[in-house]
């Protein structure tokens, strides 16, 4: 394995109950880069993130982080011992609690002293959120809430950030803010980002690499800019992934 690989799935089988969704999936994501997981609905993209974060049992195969076998580790171990943070789909804040209290909860495994020391450093990334520290989290805009979720995850100074469809429900401009933040984390802090995103075209513009899945297997792994520039793949691929924009398009 080349030593710039942060995440490696080797022949992984995982699923829900009797139903296996990842079917001997092998993939690799590079350290400090943003890798997009693409593919049609139900291909298993979110399942990859959940399996990596220890939320689903690995039935076969191995998962490695920086070459270390982490197969079977649970979410708490991944978070606290291996530096993996997961921002799931949808809204995951405590809406009635303040912005600051939500951040405090993000640092619960660190202890209050360390959490309070780190909160200002995370807030530097989000000037607008910082002005609303004592407002209820639910009063932030959708984009600000997503930024706060990412900020909460960053308190643990993760080396790997798993993020599932951060753009859902956000306007295109706000999506750009969230994407810019991820780019900054990768470029300035060397965070490895593995992201599921339906907003394929704008995500490809800011990502480094793209992996496409179909029926729980990798069917493509290419640099994001190459994929964006390839008219043939664009027609097939973006058509399939943009279900909202072109409901009758073929899948990948
Ligand atoms: N909790 C669950 N229990 C049973 N089956 C599930 C569960 N979550 C997902 N699945 C099934 O697993 C398959 C893969 O789901 P997954 O969410 O990984 O797909 P995806 O590629 O992320 O799709 P989408 O783009 O629609 O979010 C789907 O057929 C889905 O119905």
From TrEMBL:
Domain of life: Bacteria
Listed SMART domains: AAA (SM00382)
Record-linked InterPro entries: AAA+_ATPase (IPR003593), ABC_transporter-like_ATP-bd (IPR003439), BCAA_Transport_ATP-bd_LivF (IPR052156), P-loop_NTPase (IPR027417)
The ABC transporter domain, residue ranges: 7-240
MF-aspect GO terms: ATP binding
Keywords: Amino-acid transport, ATP-binding, Cell membrane, Membrane, Nucleotide-binding, Transport
Keyword DNA-binding among UniProt keywords: no
Family listed: Belongs to the ABC transporter superfamily.
Name of the protein described by the UniProt record: ABC transporter ATP-binding protein
């Amino acid at each position: 394995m080349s030593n710039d690989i942060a995440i490696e799935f080797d022949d992984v089988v995982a699923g829900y109950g009797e139903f296996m969704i990842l079917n001997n999936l092998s993939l690799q994501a590079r350290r400090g880069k943003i890798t997009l997981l693409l593919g049609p609905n139900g291909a298993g993209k979110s399942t990859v993130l959940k399996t990596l974060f220890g939320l689903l049992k690995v039935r076969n195969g191995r998962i490695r982080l920086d070459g270390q076998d982490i197969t079977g580790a649970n979410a708490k171990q991944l978070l606290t011992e291996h530096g993996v943070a997961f921002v799931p789909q949808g809204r995951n804040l405590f809406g009635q609690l303040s912005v600051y209290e939500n951040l405090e909860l993000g640092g619960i495994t660190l202890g209050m002293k360390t959490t309070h020391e780190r909160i200002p450093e995370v807030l530097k990334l989000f000037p607008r959120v910082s002005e609303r520290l004592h407002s209820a989290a639910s009063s932030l805009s959708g984009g600000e809430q997503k930024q706060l979720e990412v900020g909460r995850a960053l308190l643990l100074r993760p080396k790997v950030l798993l993020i599932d469809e951060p753009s859902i429900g956000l306007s295109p401009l706000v999506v750009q803010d969230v994407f810019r933040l991820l780019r900054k984390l990768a470029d300035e802090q060397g965070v490895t980002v593995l992201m599921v995103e339906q907003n394929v075209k704008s995500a490809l513009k800011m990502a480094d690499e793209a992996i496409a899945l179909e029926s729980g297997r990798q069917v493509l792994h290419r640099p994001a800019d190459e994929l964006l520039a390839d008219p043939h793949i664009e027609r097939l691929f973006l058509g399939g992934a943009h279900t909202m924009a072109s409901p009758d398009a073929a899948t990948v």
